[in-house]
Design a protein that fits this description.
Blueprint lengths: L7 E6 L4 H10 L5 E8 L11 E5 L17 E4 L11 H21 L4 E5 L11 H15 L4 E5 L4 E2 L7 H13 L13 E2 H11 L6 E5 L1 H9 L3
Parallel strand pairs: 1-2, 1-4, 2-3, 4-5, 5-6, 6-9, 7-8
Length: 229
């Protein structure tokens, strides 16, 4: 597959989640994508664009998707556990860290130049909090792969239009928007972000010029989105 200079070839892992769906929906509206490859445990229904290909894979077995990676310029990874507290630490590491890192390694070996990861604000490889430490360790491992460009998206609370995880999320979705105006200065990165804005930012950022390692937080989500509006 040969990609023209003004077009993109993108492979996505995790496109069925809330953020992945938002990014996918925006990508489907664009005209300058030569190929969009969706990898997942199950096909995503009602995706009919001619430039989309879908493959059912085992996220824990890189051999199940290696053949689908060559020829892509960029990768978007939104794979992750929706409620980490509901599963064991071992299972969380298996999905959110090991599977993602294996995908990134495979992408690098296949010639992917730009890798985007959905992470979280506050991640650090030496954090005393398990979730933040695991994500921080993942990012450090991704940096060692030396992609031409590595984009790490760090949202705080992701605001979805519907409650997906029960009472605690229902309360959070109701309250968090009222907190946003109070989070100023260095606290702006903790503002809640609508899932559609975050998804569009991940999609838009693929088409922006950039090199090296970059972190995108609340302010950057909106600035990246505006660049193509």
């Amino acid at each position: 597959m040969t990609t023209k200079p003004n077009e993109q070839s993108i492979v996505m892992l995790g496109a069925s989640g809330a953020v992945g769906t938002a990014a996918l929906n925006f990508l489907l509206s664009l005209k300058n994508i030569q190929q969009l490859t969706l990898l997942g445990r199950n096909p995503i229904p009602n995706v009919n664009a001619d430039f989309v290909k879908q493959y059912k894979i085992n996220i824990h077995e890189p051999k199940s998707y290696l053949d689908y990676l060559p020829g892509h310029r960029s990768a978007i990874c939104t794979l992750g556990v929706g409620e980490p507290s509901k599963i064991s630490k071992e299972e969380f590491i298996k999905i959110d860290k090991t599977a993602v890192l294996n995908f990134a390694i495979a992408c690098k070996n296949a010639g992917v130049k730009h890798f985007e990861l959905l992470a979280s604000v506050g991640i650090h490889a030496e954090s005393r909090f398990f979730y933040l430490r695991a994500k921080g360790e993942l990012v450090e491992a991704l940096k060692d792969l030396n992609f031409d460009r590595l984009s790490i998206f760090q949202p705080s609370m992701i605001l979805t239009p519907t409650n997906r995880y029960g009472l605690s999320q229902a309360i959070t979705l109701k309250v968090w928007p009222y907190l946003n105006p109070l989070l100023i200065g260095g606290l702006r990165k903790y503002r809640g972000i609508p899932v559609d804005v975050l998804g569009q930012a991940m999609a838009n950022n693929i088409f922006n010029n950039g090199k090296g390692y970059e972190i995108l937080q609340w302010d950057q989500f909106y600035s990246v989105t505006k660049k193509r509006n």
